[in-house]
Amino acid sequence: MRTPRSVAAVALFVALILGTGLSGPIGAATQTAKPEDVGLSSERLKRITDLVNRHITANNISGAVTLVARNGRVAHFEAQGVMDIASKKAMQKDTIFRIMSMTKPVIGTAVLMLMEEGKIRLNDPVSRFIPEFRGQKVAVMQPAGGRGAPPAAGAGTAPPEPRFYTVPADREITIRDLLTHTSGLMSGGEASRSEGAKVAAKPTETLADYIPRLGAVPLDFQPGSRWAYSAAAGFDTLARVVEVASGMPVDRFLKQRLFDPLSMKDTTFQPNDSNPRMVTNYRRGQSGLEKVQNPAFMNGIYFSGGGGLMSTAEDYFQFAQMLANGGQMNGVRILSPRVAELMRSVYAQDTLPGRPAGEGFGLSVRVVKDAVARNTFLSEGSFGWSGAYGTHFWIDPKEKLVAVLMIQTPAQGISGDFENVVMQAIVGGAPAASGTN
User: Fold this and answer.
1) Sign of the dihedral defined by the CA atoms of residues 311, 336, 359, 346, in that order
2) For range 21-39, the mean pLDDT
3) Domain ranges of the chain
4) What are the beta bridge partners of residue 291?
5) Strands 359-361 and 392-396
6) How far is residue 205 from each of residues 178, 282, 300, measured CA to CA in Å?
7) What does the pLDDT read at residue 373?
8) How far is CA 202 from CA 130, 198, 264, 390, in A?
9) Which CATH class is domain 108-250?
């Protein structure tokens, strides 16, 4: 006869390996359905479990929470693995993850909300809200052996000249440029990296303290001429624009106008590693998964629009489903249908230098323009984004599908594989909506 302790041990083992879910029930605001009721195959959805287990077994991730919904109803919601390796604490469905760049579509939505109110326009120069961005320069890199070449041996110890010079920008960068990563602001170029380091934010500084200094950093290219990812600065700047246009700190704006109305109760800029639901962050090292500390900007003072939010799978589903529904969720309207459609429209074509084949870019989200060219199972028109620690989501308007992947370790290939195993589970059309979504 098994003792209570042995029964508990078996239950934990099952939860870790099979993801059967020792966590709490799904929130009351979220509708659920049997997979077959929304045109999904229960048998094929098990491949999500298999995929996650393979990555856990390979020591790529400690665990994951996955969620798939169709026609606004959740048909798959599973927690697998552990949220902390040392304690072996089982992953929970309500585990809180650092979503990093999945913050960007949230900020993009805030900008669009203010655009609907007439407080922001897509073609507004950023200097309308942050005057220090007026008169920016663009860096031009020196050719090899040019003016910026290192001094020859024996030529003295004078420091080398900068490997770039600057020219005036053809035009000011706009809100649209920032939303579509076509601004050239701190987008990975050598000049912006070196000059940006000179004005880096200090530990106690806010967006209001730091962002104006970015106006002095040279752009990596002429605005609108190419696409290059601005990992932090572009959407940090948009977060500051939201503050100026709304007249309130961006964290308060998002809580009052987005998180509270959508019942996103666990989504916040405030880090709290003592919270038992906060997942441990890992990276792959020589000896396996190694614990990683929070990035410095997650300090509760600096509200990074590029990557500062923490959230749960269910919270983020509420946000994504709102976009899938054309701007409303559970009777609460956040955006008009037209503006929600504009968000997923292609503003940066896949032919623009820097964009991958088949994938354009909308207002804060990637957009599948050509599924064959992208080598993807996703329908054309699908949109979403990812985070640096492995989180990933997309919305497929054609199939009326929303999917969310929450992990806390960058794992090569898992997001694309997750897309494929979700899409192959579609075996029928999505029935007409029957609820409030």
Assistant:
1) negative
2) 76
3) 108-250
4) 282
5) unpaired
6) 22, 27, 11
7) 98
8) 19, 11, 30, 27
9) alpha beta
**How many whole angstroms separate alpha carbon 283 and alpha carbon 410?**
7
- Give the residue among 64, 33, 68 at the shortest CA–CA distance from 51: 64
Q: What is the DSSP string of 106-153?
A: HHHHHHHHHHHTTS--TT-BGGGT-GGGTT-EEEEEPPTTSTTPPPPT
Whole-number Å distance between alpha carbons of 404 and 156: 58
Please say whether the dihedral angle defined by the alpha carbons of residues 249, 252, 254 and 258, taken in this order, is positive or negative: negative
Can you give 171-207 as a three-state secondary structure string?
CCCEHHHHHHCCCCCCCCCHHHHHHHHHCCCCCCCCH
pTM of the model: 0.91
List pLDDT tens digits, range 368-380. Answer: 999 999 999 999 9
Contact assessment for residue 398 and residue 38, using Cβ atoms and an 8 Å cutoff: no
DSSP code of residue 82: E
Q: Residue 378: which of 404, 350, 397, 364 has the closest Cα?
A: 397
> What digits encode the pLDDT tens for the residues 146-171?
554 445 455 555 555 668 999 999 99
- Give the model confidence (pLDDT) of 407-416 as tens digits: 999 988 999 9
16-44: b (≥16 Cβ within 10 Å) or e: beebebebeebbebbbebebeebbbbeeb
C-alpha pair distances (Å), 377 with each of 205, 214, 368, 373, 391: 43, 39, 10, 11, 19
Q: At what angle do helices 42-57 and 4-18 cross, to 10 degrees?
A: 100
Neighbour count for residue 291 (Cβ, 10 Å):
13
Residue 1 banded pLDDT, cuts 50, 70, 90: very low
Find the mean pLDDT for residues 304-325: 98
CA dist 260 → 25, 31, 300, 387 (Å): 20, 18, 19, 23
d(CA 390, CA 410): 5
